[in-house]
Amino acid sequence: MTAHGERPRLAVVGAGPAGLAAALAAARQGLTVTLVDAAPQAGGQFHRQPAEGLGARRARALHHRWSTWERLRDGLARHVAAGRITHLPDHHVWTVEREKDTDPDLDPDGTFVVHALRGPAQEEPATVRADGLVIATGGYETVLPFPGWTLPGVVTAGGAQAMLKGGLVLPGRTAVVAGTGPLLMPVAAGLAAAGARVAALVEAAGARDVARSAPALAAHPGKLAEGARYAAELLRHRVPVRSRHTVVAAHGTDRLDAVTVAALDPDGRVRTGTGHRVPCDTLAVGHGMLPHTDLAETLGCAVDGRRVRVDDEQRTDVPGVWAAGETTGIGGADLALAEGRIAGLSAAARLDSRTPDRSSWRSAAAARSRLRRFASAVDAVYRPPAHWTDQVTDDTVVCRCEEVPAADVRAAVGELGAGDLRTVKLLTRAGMGWCQGRMCGPAVAGLLGCELPVSRRPFARPLPLGVLAGATEDPTEDPQPVRPEEENA
Amino acid sequence: MVGAASALYATREGLDVVLVDRGPVAGGTTGSGEGNLLVSDKEPGPELELALLSGRLWSALAAEAGVAAAIEYEAKGGVVVASTPDGLTALADLAVGQRAAGVTADPVDAHALYDLEPHLAPGLPGGVHYPQDAQVMPTLAAAHLIRIARTGGARLRTGSTVTGVLRTAAGAVRGVRTDGAEIHAPAVVNAAGTWGGELAALAGVELPVLPRRGFVLVTEPLPRMVHHKVYAADYVADVASDSAALQTSPVVEGTAAGPVLIGASRERVGFDREFSLPVARALAAGATRLFPFLAQVRAMRGYLGFRPYMPDHLPAIGPDARVPGLFHACGHEGAGIGLSTGTGRLIAQALAGRTPDLDLAPFRPDRFERRQEDTA
After folding, report:
1. Which of B288, B297, B300 has the most A C-beta neighbours within 10 Å, making it the best mutation to test the interface with A?
2. Which of A193, A309, A458, B155 is deepest in the core (most CB within 10 A)?
C-alpha cells in the first residue's frame, strides 16, 4: 500500500493508554510508527507524570496500575531506541489532511498529513506523513454551570487530579468534591491522601441507581474491588459521602469560601429546604467526560452520538483511519488499552495489505466487550441531575471564554427565535471563544433542552495564520512542502 | 436576512406577515456571512443603486433606539488597496464612475493609506477610501429585524418547511403548504436565498440560483488593529467573475467583538460542506500579505457558506410575471446582508401596490427565461 517501497508508516495521535498500546502493537509488527502527542511526556491523562526536575518521589503512590505504566513506558523506550517508533512530544495537532494521490492504483487511500504545532508556545509548524492513522485523542471533562462556578478555587475534578499527578501540588486545604461520575471517588481519595481535608464528596447519583445497575456492575469484580478500595480510603480519611446530593452554589467574594449542598429528589430536582453551607477553599467538580472527535470529524469519519464509530477492528468508516480509547466512547484506561492494541494490530496487517489474524487480539477483544458493557452500566448510573438547569440563575456565566450569562442564552431562545446551538452561538457568542464551545456546549444544549450536536471544527486548536499560510513549512520532516499559493494562481 | 428585512418593511406597510423558515432564524447563508454593507465593490449600475438605497435604510434602522448596538452596526468605511501603480490607476478610474453614481470614493496616496490603516504591509502605492461602507453582525441583524417585525404584528414560524405553493384555479398564488399547516395568503415572497430556485420550482417556475461556496477565517479577539474593511483591488474582479474555479482575494476586517474576519473565497462546487485546507491556506496567505502582523495571530475557527449566485450577478427582486402573487427576493450572491434592506423596502412597496423607490426592471425574476427564448 505504501508508494515508497518502505515499511508502511502509521501515525498515532495521542500517547495515552490507547495511543501507546496501538503504537507498541503496530511497531512490534514492523510498522514505522510516529507517535504524536501534545503532552511533554507520554502517558496521557491517566498516566500523567510529574514534570522532570521536580524530583518527585511519591509519583508511584499517586498512580494505580503502576506496572501497566512501566510496561508501556519501557516498551516505548525500547521501540524508540530501535528506531521503530518516533515519539514527538509537545506536538499539538491542529488538523489531519488526507492527500489524494494522482495515481489511485499506487496509493488508493491517499496519504495522511498530520499538521501540528511544536513546543509549549505552539508556534512552530511540524508535519508528519503516514499511510495510516490512529486517532487516540482521548476525552475531556464536562462541567455544568451553577452560580459561583467561575470563582477562583473552583477547579474541575480532572484538573484537581492532574495537579495531584502532574505537579504534586495540593490545590487547597479544605476541599469539596462534587458532580457525578466514577472520577469523583479517586479524586476525593487522592486529595485526602495528599493531606487535604475533604469536607464532602457530593455525588448526584444515588445508592439506589447503583443498586439498579448492580447486575451489570457485579460482572466486573475487579472494578468493584477498585470502588471498594476507594470507599475504604474515604472512610479512613473520614470523608463524608453525600449521594443524591448536588452543589447548588459556590460562595465567595474574591475566591471560594463555601458551597451550598442540597439533596435531590428521585426526579433530579433539588429538595427545597435541604441546602446547607459547607466551608471550603477548593471545589473539585466534574460531570463526566466527552470524547474528543475533532480530527475524526474533519476527516469525515462517522460519529454516533458524540463517539467515533468503529468496527470490530477499531476501523472508522474512512479507509486508513482507526480510532481507539475515549474518542470512541468514554470507558476508562483498561478499555483504551484493549482498543489501542486491536487498532495497532489491525493497522499493521491492513497497511501491509494483509487480513489481520483476529486470534492475535482474542484476549483484548474479550476485555473490550466486558469493559464496554461495564462502561454502559456506569454511564446509566452517573448522570447529572435531570433538572440541573433549574439552579442556573440568569446571571450565571455559561460560556466562560466569552463571559455569556444564562440570561443571554434564554433571551436568544425566547425573544430572538433561536432553537439550536449554532444560532445561540451566533446570537450570544457562547462557544465562540478559546475553547470553541467544548466547555459550554453541554451547558447551552441543556438550557436549550436539546441534544449536544456534532460540531465541525476545522481547526482542532487555534493556530497562527502564518503557519496556516504555510510561509514556514517545516523543512526537516517534509522534503516537498505543500505550496498552497499555487492553488490561487 | 432578506426575508427578515422583507417581513419588517412589509409589516411597516401595514401588511399581515407570516415569516416561514425550515430552520432557525439566520440558519442558511446569513449565519455564514461577514455582514458586509458595501458600495465599494460595486460598479455603477442597478446593483450599486440598490446598495446606496440599502445603505441609507441601514443607517435609518441603526438610528432607531437600541438597534445599532444590538446588531453591531458599524459605519467604519472601506479601504480598497492597490498593490501596483497600474492597479491604483484602475481603482481611481472605477472610483470616478462610482462618484458620478453618488458614492463617496476618496482616492488616497501611500501616505494617507497608512494613516487609515497603520498596520498594512509596507510599500503599497495607495488605494481608495469608501466612508459609506459599513458592517453588521448578520445573525444578530436578522434576528433583531425579525424581533422588531414581530412587535409590529408579524408572526414567525421557524422549523417549518414549505412543501408546496398553493394556487387558485386561475393559477394565482393563494398561500403555501408546509410540513405543518397550510398558510393562506394572496402573496408569497420567495426569500429562500441559495435555495430560492427550489422554492420557485414549487411554484412551477424556474429561477437559476446556484451556490457559490465561500470560506471565512476568524481570529482570536484583538484590540483594534484593522480599522476599516480592507481588501485588495482584485476582489472586485473576483466578485464579478463567472468562473467556477477557486478564487481567493484577501478581505480583512476587524469586528466590534474583537476577532478579525478573513475572506474571501469563491468557488462553485455545489453544496459541498467539506472543509478545504487549501482554501484556508490561501486565505491566510492573502491576509498575511496584506497585514503582516496577522502571521502571529491565531485563527480560532473557520466557517463556510453558499452564496446565492445568479448568472448575471443581479438578484431577483419583485413580482414574477409568470405566477400572479409570487414575488422573489433572492439571488444576492455575497451581498445579501447589505442589499437586504433595500430589497425588503422594494418588495414591501410592490406588495402594497406602491411605486418602488427603484426601477425593478433590471431585477425581473423572469429575465433569464426570456434570454433563453431569444437565443433559442
Report:
1. B300
2. A458
Interchain contact, B274 vs A418, CB within 8 Å? no
Grade residue A482 by pLDDT with cuts at 50, 70 and 90.
Answer: very low
Where does A219-298 show beta strands of DSSP type E? Answer: 241-243, 245-251, 258-263, 276-279, 282-287, 289-291
Reported as a pLDDT band with limits 50, 70 and 90, residue A100 is: low
Res A335 pLDDT > 90: yes
**A480 or B18, which is more confident:** B18
Shortest Cα distance, chain B CAs vs residue A229, angstroms: 44
pLDDT in tens, A84-99: 999 999 999 999 988 7
Domain ranges (residues) in chain B: 2-71+137-209+312-375, 78-130+210-309
Task: Place B69 in a pLDDT band, splitting at 50, 70 and 90.
Answer: very high
pLDDT recorded at residue B295: 93
Closest Cα in chain B to A301: B274
CATH superfamily of A143-284: FAD/NAD(P)-binding domain (3.50.50.60)
Across the interface, whether the CB atoms of A488 and B285 are under 8 A apart is answered yes
Are the beta carbons of A488 and B248 separated by less than 8 Å? yes
Query: With contacts defined as CB-CB under 8 Å, which chain B residues touch A487?
Result: 246, 278-279, 281-282
What residue of B is the nearest CA neighbor of A467?
B295
Element (H, E) at A380: helix A362-381
Alpha-carbon distance A391 to nearest alpha carbon in chain B (angstroms): 27
User: For chain A, what are the domain ranges?
Assistant: 9-140+290-356, 143-284, 392-448
Residues B78-130+210-309: name the CATH superfamily. Answer: D-Amino Acid Oxidase, subunit A, domain 2 (3.30.9.10)
In a 13 Å sphere around the CA of B193, the CA atoms on its Cβ side amount to: 29
Out of B137, B257, B281, closest to residue A484 by CB:
B281
- What value of ipTM does the predicted structure carry? 0.87
**Quick check: A63 pLDDT over 90?**
no
- State the distance between the two ends of chain A, measured CA to CA, in whole angstroms: 33
Query: CB-side exposure of A239: number of CA atoms within 13 Å?
Result: 33
Cell numbers describing residue B301: 475557527
Searching chain B, which residue's CA lies closest to the CA of residue A115?
Answer: B277
A487/B246 Cβ within 8 A = yes
Question: How much is the pLDDT for A431?
Answer: 81
Tens-digit pLDDT profile for residues A294-310: 899 888 899 987 899 99
- Taking the CA of residue A303 and the nearest CA in chain B, the distance in Å comes to 15
Return the number of CB contacts < 8 Å for A and B: 130
- pLDDT confidence of residue A369: 94
- Interface residues of chain A, partner chain B, Cβ below 8 Å: 95, 97, 123, 298, 300, 412, 415-420, 422-423, 426-427, 429, 432-434, 436, 456-459, 462-466, 468-471, 482, 484-485, 487-488
- For residue A474, the model assigns a pLDDT of 43
Nearest to B281 among A412, A427, A470 (CB): A470
**Domain B2-71+137-209+312-375, CATH homologous superfamily name and number:** FAD/NAD(P)-binding domain (3.50.50.60)
Look up the CATH number of domain A9-140+290-356: 3.50.50.60
Beta carbons within 10 angstroms of residue A18's beta carbon = 35
Say whether A143-284 and A9-140+290-356 share the same fold.
Answer: yes
Q: How far is CA B182 from CA A395, B63, B146, B170, B173, in A?
A: 41, 37, 21, 19, 13
Q: Which residues of B touch A97 (CB under 8 A)?
A: 277
CA A141 centroid distance within chain:
6
- Closest by Cα among A66, A133, A489, A141 to A310: A133
Contact (CB, 8 A) for A190 and A164: yes
Grid coordinates standing for B228?
476599516
